Task: structure prediction
Amino acid sequence: MGPIHKIQKKLLDLAKTRRLSGKTLREIGGLVGAPDAPQIVKHHLTRLQERGLITADFLNREYLLANPQKISRDFISVPIFGAANCGTASIIANDEVEGYLKVSKRIVGQRKIFAIRAVGNSMNRANLKGSNIENGDLVLVDRTEKTPRDNDYVVSVIDGCATIKKVRLDKKNKTMTLVPESTESFTPIILHSDDNLFIAGKVVQVVKAA
Result:
């Protein structure tokens, strides 16, 4: 699931304020800069529906923001926030939801979980509950776990860029090392306790790419 298209972002913003319902596709096109392209508008509305971001009833002209919590009694919809690099911290972190992942409540429990897509090969020898982290995998992250313990896998943000790594702590020297675990050669990232580092959360599960 790639970045959201600019037309889809405009449609999503309009759906949040209920300004789409009752309008023709051509009228909606006029609101998003595509007044003469109703089929393009329909395509992007369909893509938003496939991502689980809206519900679209083309016959009755109802286009509403989806409620991700109302999937079923046994599942919850976890937001997918872009990607994090499995290498150097080079992918800009953002809080834009790209879609939702349906996950059993037995896995999520009471934790506040989000998903992020792994990019790169620096964690392809990781061992998180028996699973490695390969390019294209989704990782489930507990955003309440902001203080990592030694050997935890985390999503960290360094100077605005997100990366997935294993944590090694050296309390004596007040350092944290973000360690790659890979079949390839990657350099660890060594940080001091005073460095600009934000822990987005602890990785708790890997969802393998199809």
About this structure: The chain has a mean pLDDT of 86. Residues 6-65 form a domain with the Arc Repressor Mutant, subunit A fold (CATH 1.10.10).
